[in-house]
Automatic annotation (TrEMBL):
Name assigned to this protein: Glycosyltransferase family 39 protein
UniProt organism field: Heyndrickxia acidicola
EC numbers on record: 2.4.-.-
One Pfam family, short name: PMT_2
Membrane topology: Multi-pass membrane protein
Subcellular location: Cell membrane
Amino acid sequence: MTQHRIYNFLYGLGLFLLLSLYIFNVFYKISDFPVYSWDEARHGISAYEMLQKKNFFVNTFRYSPDYWNLKPPLSFWAIMAGFKLAGFNTLGFRLLSVIFSIITVILAALYALKKYGKIASLFTVASLGTCQQFLINHSSRTGDADSLFVCLFTIATLSLLTYEKKPVWLYISGVAFSLAFLTKSWHAGNIAIIMALYIFGTRKFKRLTFFNWVNIILSMVLPILAWGIGRYQYDGLKFFQNMIAYDLLQRSSSTLEGHIGGPDYYLLILIRFYSLWLLILCVFLLILVVKYKKWIINVLKRSDILGLCLWILVPLLLFSLAQTKVRWYILPIYPPLSIVIGLIASRILNKEHLIIKVLFMLLVIYTVFFYERAIINFLQDPPKDPKQDLLYKLDRNKSFRGKDIYLEKSTAPFYWEQDIILTAEMYGDLHTKDGGYYTFIKQKGALLLLQRSVFANRVIALHHYRIIASSRWGYIISKR
């Protein structure tokens, strides 16, 4: 076997093992984790109800148009696809997020392989695949919009960086931008800014004809326009006005929903979730700067490096300037950070002295094991939600499909939490209603969710209610 074939074999084996580890991490006990309230549950509710009503333009909450979650529908469509593929359960709910996160890792690995070689590709996967925030926090393992958004952000930026003489890559970048907008709305503005700064910063705009510019603009605008026309048919300008007033202007100029933080908020988040990889990046980048000034200068002149820097800095700076701070807003910067780590790894292992190579490898191995252990420890012990566990027992029982369910006023808290609404819909196709016990007794065929208590036991015994499902937490009952 030639040396070239040996290298190819080792690269293939290493990539297979690292991707297998990531796929294990992203799927491990994914169905055992309860639905998170707020964003994840809200997205799931909209997706479920849109699918039931067969209205793919208007996202709803409890079957009324939702003017709090002001996102276009692409992430809802992805959840719908997951429901169709794996059923109405937590796996189906999160399946497309898992798939898009795997695609993101593969795309980053392929780009690093093409631009910087096999070593860079392996270390890109190692660093991105063990990033706790990218894996766990509002992303790969949840039904939120962020995994899809990060994947589209990655496609848009890598297509931009791949463009040399074929404008088709710019068109792909434009389409990916528009789909990212249809996923997380104004967050996609980062992509448009990166595209503009890159095209003009590298002077590649000189190669573009008028026809090219028209196609770029159309690729960025037409999908959004098609959705906008479709949505306008239902409620006119109301949704768009709220998108601009609340989701763009208020979110950027004031602190909403208690999401506070100073100018260093996102740097602290990076240190919290990515500190060891950042340490490796900074220490060995400093070594390269000191030893190879000419190489660093030449590298910084390259258009692909400018693109990676813009990919990291633009979201970091823009979200740092915004008043509303949410830790998962910077998820798109992890792929480029990982690619830069891969580039540094390639240079260190190809050019440096043995001592530095050994030190580098020891730090990387320790970092991978440190984060992998933290990930497994987190995934090993999923939290329990007793109300969700009770609703799981309905498991799409056909005799209760489409029924109304009420919440007893003695049940704490006395309001429908978003995760409970979604669980009731996914596992029972139930319609959550307000009004409590006294409304329940007036409604034919309705169900009641109530917590175990002396009152609950007395009511069930006195009126001979039928217990549909029970747990240590409480009951789901119906009238006989």
